Amino acid sequence: MSRQAISPGKNFFAGGFGGVCLVFAGHPLDTIKVRIQTMPVPGPGESPLYRGTFDCFKQTLAKEGFKGLYKGMAAPIIGVTPMFAVCFFGFGLGKKLQQKTPDDVLTYPQLFAAGMLSGVFTTAIMAPGERIKCLLQIQAAKGEVKYAGPMDCVKQLYKESGIRGIYRGTALTLMRDVPASGMYFMTYEWLKRLLTPEGKSPNELSVPSVLFAGGMAGIFNWAVAIPPDVLKSRFQTAPEGKYPNGFRDVLRELLREEGVASLYKGFTAVMLRAFPANAACFLGFEMAMKFLNWAAPSL
């Protein structure tokens, strides 16, 4: 059976649509994840700000209403559409570069390598978007209003520290996204092949199969990404100059004060979010790709 030729351009547009689906499905639990990861360490005799994922969820609803779960969503919506477009473009390009003919079936290490390339491609967009999102999410939790919105946050960061202030945490974003993206796409392609009936193409998978493969890809992605994500969230929301040696200082402080378990802060929120958000992402991607293949089959 002839396979559909890989088109990085179609991947770009379909990936952008998938990214929008991911944000709408997953942002509430992302807000909770960031608030748990960045909450202050309780002093002697004090209770923690949040006792866990569900307590954070209840407090957010009680204090800020349903809209509180979507705080900071403008930044990822603005950033996620091009970011996922570039992410899927990078994956498509990574696959195409390793193919000699359109019918070549890539090995799983080749798919992992293509996925890692996508992580490199997205960092330029992801790092500032994550910085802005995290700052807006935690200021709402603290009851402070330093930033009026994403653009005001960008202006203030640039005024305080220049372009470096906006891109703070780029190295940690790379450390998180390069291996995690490799795992993400490899897992998705593996499950697509596993779920494809005999004699059928992976492009003909049913909606439930696509949702399952996409959701599980998100789970595997975050299983790799959580420790560097905790370090990134802590580093990007810390006051200027708190961690002069970067992520090494963050890591030392976390291990010293809270132990190894601190590297998995927000684990429940992450995993609760990972399945539906990434299921929505890949379903959106596959639907958009089918439309593009129908509308422009020769591209």
From TrEMBL:
<keyword id="KW-0812">Transmembrane</keyword>
<keyword id="KW-0813">Transport</keyword>
<dbReference type="GO" id="GO:0031966">
    <property type="term" value="C:mitochondrial membrane"/>
</dbReference>
<comment type="function">
    <text>Mediates the electroneutral exchange of acylcarnitines (O-acyl-(R)-carnitine or L-acylcarnitine) of different acyl chain lengths (ranging from O-acetyl-(R)-carnitine to long-chain O-acyl-(R)-carnitines) with free carnitine ((R)-carnitine or L-carnitine) across the mitochondrial inner membrane, via a ping-pong mechanism. Key player in the mitochondrial oxidation pathway, it translocates the fatty acids in the form of acylcarnitines into the mitochondrial matrix, where the carnitine palmitoyltransferase 2 (CPT-2) activates them to undergo fatty acid beta-oxidation.</text>
</comment>
<protein>
    <recommendedName>
        <fullName>Mitochondrial carnitine/acylcarnitine carrier protein</fullName>
    </recommendedName>
</protein>
<comment type="similarity">
    <text>Belongs to the mitochondrial carrier (TC 2.A.29) family.</text>
</comment>
<dbReference type="InterPro" id="IPR023395">
    <property type="entry name" value="MCP_dom_sf"/>
</dbReference>
<dbReference type="InterPro" id="IPR050567">
    <property type="entry name" value="Mitochondrial_Carrier"/>
</dbReference>
<feature type="transmembrane region" description="Helical">
    <location>
        <begin position="105"/>
        <end position="127"/>
    </location>
</feature>
<feature type="transmembrane region" description="Helical">
    <location>
        <begin position="12"/>
        <end position="29"/>
    </location>
</feature>
<keyword id="KW-1133">Transmembrane helix</keyword>
<dbReference type="GO" id="GO:0015227">
    <property type="term" value="F:O-acyl-L-carnitine transmembrane transporter activity"/>
</dbReference>
<feature type="repeat" description="Solcar">
    <location>
        <begin position="106"/>
        <end position="194"/>
    </location>
</feature>
<dbReference type="GO" id="GO:0006839">
    <property type="term" value="P:mitochondrial transport"/>
</dbReference>
<feature type="repeat" description="Solcar">
    <location>
        <begin position="205"/>
        <end position="291"/>
    </location>
</feature>
<keyword id="KW-0472">Membrane</keyword>
<dbReference type="InterPro" id="IPR018108">
    <property type="entry name" value="MCP_transmembrane"/>
</dbReference>
<keyword id="KW-0677">Repeat</keyword>
<dbReference type="Pfam" id="PF00153">
    <property type="entry name" value="Mito_carr"/>
</dbReference>
<keyword id="KW-0496">Mitochondrion</keyword>
<dbReference type="GO" id="GO:1902603">
    <property type="term" value="P:carnitine transmembrane transport"/>
</dbReference>
<feature type="transmembrane region" description="Helical">
    <location>
        <begin position="73"/>
        <end position="93"/>
    </location>
</feature>
<feature type="repeat" description="Solcar">
    <location>
        <begin position="6"/>
        <end position="97"/>
    </location>
</feature>
